[in-house]
# Entry
Amino acid sequence: MMTTKRALLAALAFFPIFLFVPVCSSPAETKESVSETVLSNGLKVLLLENHKAPVITFQVWYRVGSRNEEYGKTGLSHLLEHMMFKGTERIGPGELSRIIQENGGQHNAFTSADSTTYFQNFSADRINVSLELESDRMQHLMLREQNFQTERSVVMEERRLRTDDSPKAILWEQLEATAFQSQPYHWPVIGWMQDIARLTLDDLKSYYERYYNPANAVLVVAGDFRKDELLSRIERSFATIPKRTRPEEQVSLEAPQQGGRRIVVKKEARLASLVMGYHVPNLREQQRQGSQDSYALEVVEALLGSGESSRLQTSLVRRKKLALGVGVNHPLLSKDPSLFSISAEVLPDRDVADVEKAIDEEVDRLQREPVGERELQKAKNKLEAGFVFHQDSIFSQAVELARYEMVLSWRDIDEYLPGIRKVSAEDVQRVAKRYLMPDNRTVAVLVPLPPKGSGPRLPGPSTREQGIK
# Structure
């Protein structure tokens, strides 16, 4: 089981070769190839036929993640994900995994800030296994005190290993906690340790009853099947689940930042690190406003950090030799407005302040000088190629449909390539000026400490320590 906002990348990497198939070559083909049905109880079903190989991916996406939690009860979404494998009225603890493995399948789950997902990949003739297992645990999950106590301890240990003992994970966690003050992205997907320790079985039962609701879920199946036949089987398995009211969607917008913020994390590590997070709108907000800024920010991401010839890679890693690596991320499909981030891992003999200055210089150049046509087209080509290659498997095709459905509609996937192609040099310059500003960002710096008991630390790179403004 996986968590954090980057859980999806881990899930995709988990099945890197699950059926290579041709993807849609034009936007119209996606709408034509996907069948959408809403059952009488509100469950939305998306079916994508692909007969290139006798396999299927079966995915249930619930519209609930850490953004739906509240102060003092963070980590509920992820802990419930763990408990979903602990049996139902019909299947005992551990039986679900055994059944899937005995039928030659692969399965897992992941929790993000915006959704919780369960999936199985099977030979096409084993699709009944998914139908039975997922419909069963959508309505008959058994939440037992003994299992709860065990899994809560497991999650706490997971947090220690993956977050508390990971300097980079702590740095990202503190960046988001500083950048978001009222929005639920303030807390980590896995939850704060003290909150996890306080969660009760009743908390989990209430959460399950509220959010694990057919009207609050999307079922996505892709692969080798006949959609009319499969839809009838889905209706027999899922339509009998009682209809309930879909939970009201939380809308919590962060107030505009009134100046730059900065935080320093001191932890045992080998290298210093730097992360900058700029508040940017999400695609859903941009569509409401009739704006194309989100697509322009995608191009900015590609220009600054996509590939060895990107601007930050060329400047910081290859030419100035300040950083071991750099990363740029634009969260296009976040439910709420999130952060455009720039990160760098500082080389041992280099100064964090110099790395920050070098990043600022590249951002400033993007704001002052219109990007050349050749460089702009190269960035667009990378985005288009990445978009197409990302759908090389039926697993990732299904994931992409669901991700869009969680935020907008699966049909909006067809707007991506046209949106990227329309971005101009003026658009790039405009969004860089509008969003990548010092007053709109939070900077988090990791100061490496020596291992405990290793003696005094030699003078290291400057970090320009400051409090949060």
